[in-house]
Design goal:
It is built from 8 helices and 19 strands. Helix 5 packs across helix 7 (316-328). It has helices at 2-13, 124-136, 156-164, 179-190, 262-273, 300-306, 316-328, 336-343, and strands at residues 22-23, 35-37, 64-65, 81-87, 92-99, 104-108, 111-115, 120-122, 139-144, 153-154, 173-176, 203-205, 210-213, 216-222, 231-235, 238-242, 280-283, 297-299, 359-361. A hairpin with a 4-residue loop joins strand 5 (92-99) and strand 6 (104-108). The protein has one domain (2-361): Ribonuclease Z/Hydroxyacylglutathione hydrolase-like (Metallo-beta-lactamase, Chain A, 4-Layer Sandwich). InterPro entries: Metallo-B-lactamas, Mito_Persulfide_Diox, POD-like_MBL-fold, RibonucZ/Hydroxyglut_hydro.
Length: 371
């Protein structure tokens, strides 16, 4: 046990002294009501607003220094430069990965800010990416989603529209090909019109499909378990694993969503841990306990030694048992219903009603018979 604590401290200390990006303050929120009208709080850069090509105008209150976010430095022209920005309300890591030789970059899993108490949709987290893109002079080639998230709203559509106005390229929103079964399932549950989810993603990756980021190559890797459509993205010796592996003191993602499967997640996790020891696994979320900051990546070697769910020596049967026991005690994500309805639309908001309102549906919970 003491050895594990020392190793965790080693992981944390290894990430000090690296360039910093941003974080945003946590908002305390609550959930009320049944059908939600989305509001846009002020100030907000909305879908119908534009930025001048010369300047991404980000409100200063959208940018806050954060000692626990990092940017890597490229050691050669063939290494990716990685910027990560932590969104603390949902515990989500957003990533910006660039080819230094061409300044071409991709975004992975961007976040919209959403307050369920007021239904306000704002863009602080996504605007932080626009700020970095402008500051670094990047051209965004693609926006990559690891899966249809159930805990935050995707900013993919917002960023796509903003970037299309400020570069000579509209970056496609990309995801794994199995998202279509997820879209169909949840569109039926929430009454999402077919025209609002059909073909909204610009590119559906096949398993092990190769894509480019300037002169760099990436690979889409199927990692089912958390959801059936889940992908990871390998870029150089980095694997962006989404919601599959978390920090070693948390373990793995839940598997109790429709189509989730603990056996599949075990096999996906072992696939990740079969990579070379020096590979970095960049997680989609972190929920740090007291005493440590959010950490975006852990090496394969450290996961094999320390991951509480998947370290070497844990069998598939043991993993499935502990994962199911853990999932049985978890509450539903606070933004489950809102997230799925937006994310199967690739981050597009619902079409306005005849009264001009954009509405989301939330199920009521009854303690007895309806009246």
């Amino acid at each position: 046990m003491l050895a594990d604590i020392r190793q965790l401290r080693h992981i944390q200390q290894a990430r000090t002294g690296v360039s910093h990006t941003q974080k945003f303050p946590r908002n305390v929120t609550s959930i009320k009501g049944t059908v939600r009208q989305l509001q846009k709080a002020q100030p907000v850069h909305g879908w119908n607003q534009s930025l001048s090509p010369q300047s991404f105008s980000i409100p200063t209150n959208h940018l806050t220094p954060h000692r626990a976010t990092y940017s890597t430095a490229s050691t050669t022209s063939t290494d990716a430069v990685i910027h990560d920005v932590f969104e603390p309300t949902t515990g989500t890591w957003q990533y910006l990965i660039a080819d230094p030789s061409t300044s071409t970059a991709v975004i992975i899993d961007p976040v919209l800010n959403y307050d369920p108490a007021t239904q306000a949709v704002t863009t602080q987290a996504a605007d932080s990416l626009l700020y970095l893109i402008k500051a670094k002079g990047y051209k965004i080639d693609k926006i990559l989603e690891t899966h249809a998230h159930a805990d935050h709203l995707s900013a993919a559509s917002y960023l796509q529209k903003r970037l299309a106005k400020n570069q000579n390229h509209t970056p496609p929103v990309c995801i794994g090909k199995r998202v279509e079964q997820v879209q169909k399932l949840f569109a039926e549950r929430y009454g999402v019109p077919r025209e609002e989810y059909k073909a909204v993603f610009d590119r559906l990756f096949d398993d092990d499909e190769i894509f480019t980021i300037g002169n760099l190559k990436g690979k889409a890797i199927h990692l089912p378990g958390h959801t059936p459509d889940h992908l990871g993205y390998m870029i150089g010796d980095n694997l962006f694993c989404g919601d599959s592996l978390f920090h070693v003191d948390i373990g793995t993602a839940r598997c109790d969503f429709p189509g989730g499967d603990a056996n599949d997640l075990f096999r996906s996790g072992r696939k990740l841990l079969s990579l070379p020891d020096h590979f970095k696994i960049w997680t989609g979320h972190d929920y740090p306990p007291d005493g440590r900051d959010p950490v975006p990546w852990v090496s394969v070697q450290d996961h094999k030694k320390l991951n509480k769910h998947l370290k070497d020596g844990i069998s598939e049967e043991e993993f499935v048992t502990l994962r199911k026991e853990r999932d049985a005690g978890l509450a539903a994500p606070k933004l489950l219903h809102q997230s799925l309805q937006v994310n199967i639309r690739a981050g597009h908001l619902p079409s306005p009603s005849k009264f001009g309102h954009r509405l989301l549906h939330l199920p009521l919970k009854l303690t007895g018979e309806a009246w």
